[in-house]
């Protein structure tokens, strides 16, 4: 992939993870950061130059448009950054989840991308864990999903102390918990019916603190979920087929309970890529850059999913 030029927008931890992958894929990489301090820190960590001063300053020099761009900035800046790239002529963009802070932003972005004929993919790297890919094969072997359940409990006592841009913690389900919800529905099928309930509130998340719900997927599988951000818990997904219960807890691993047994067995996985890079990131990025978008979340998909996330979280439409 020596001919692939990539603009990597962002100079934080996620951008470092992407840089490692892009180097392995032999791409021509331009890293674009905003603050001088973060740029110098990035350069010191990976020995790669950073254009500091922000994307708008970079674009004002009218550079030759890259083959693709990866947006790895803070949640609050995802939509505006991607809009600038679209208006600059970039036609292939890998956009970190969730893509925006609210429904207005994500819909505006999708309309712009569609008008310009651009391909924008939402980066949910858990879709490409070795555990996920193995589970997809097992589901196919077993004839599909019959039911599923998942938990997206967040550690509220930790999140409360984090420093984030205004609006980010208030939309935490979108910016973080959708990692779990997206994976559950990616494996089990998109909802066709959903009944969602919320209760409580937290100082940093006034919309809700406790979550429960159930529904049916387009394929007829029944699902349920729960989470309590004010109590102990962890992320988890369970997918049930006619022959197996597939257990993601922790999410990076896959365990199986087989029909006729209550024993839980770990599944042997090829973890070479997930150990060498941030799990799922190499396969996700490789597919994106080679145009193999099978199994990916498009921007149009995310617009369709957004009201479901709002319903689960108890957010007002914005």
Automatic annotation (TrEMBL):
| Pfam families registered for this protein in UniProt | GFO_IDH_MocA (PF01408)
Q: Which residues form the Gfo/Idh/MocA-like oxidoreductase N-terminal domain?
A: 6-123
MF terms per GO, please? nucleotide binding
Q: What is this protein called?
A: Gfo/Idh/MocA family oxidoreductase
Its ancestry begins with: Bacteria, Pseudomonadati, Pseudomonadota, Betaproteobacteria, Burkholderiales
